Amino acid sequence: MRGFTLIELILILAIIGVMSLLTLPFLQSFQVSSDLATSGFNLLATLRQAQRQAQTGQDNSNWGVYFDDGNHQFILFRGDSFASREPSEDQVATYSEIFSFQPDFGDQIVFSLFNGQPSASGIVQISGPNNQVRVILIAADGQINIGN
């Protein structure tokens, strides 16, 4: 009966080490892509929640979302604007500092009471490292969708 020699064991460990090093960048890239998708879906859900709360007349008020990219967060708020909101109603969602949220319509969007129409239409571009991008589309008629 014959076992493995020390050289064979070292060779096998070296092969495993090299394979691990080669797969690490792929796994990190996959994680970033997954986190980017999650951030996009979280924003999509928050925008739809604000619209739904306005449409159902919750607290007889408009609802909106404020984008605070400097603090890596977006905030669901109640009121006609972020400045005149009711701070006790705020729902803050944070995202990783490796991402940037850039709306092309300013730093907030407000959905009108009962009809849910947005105060602006446009896109929110979510950018990550390695030129990865997710886009949230907000149409003038109130449709909110996620793009590529």
UniProtKB/TrEMBL annotation:
The chain crosses the membrane at residues 6-27. The keyword Secreted does not apply. Keywords: Membrane, Transmembrane, Transmembrane helix. NCBIfam families: IV_pilin_GFxxxE. This is General secretion pathway GspH domain-containing protein. It comes from Candidatus Buchananbacteria bacterium RIFCSPHIGHO2_01_FULL_44_11. The lineage of its organism: Bacteria, Candidatus Buchananiibacteriota.
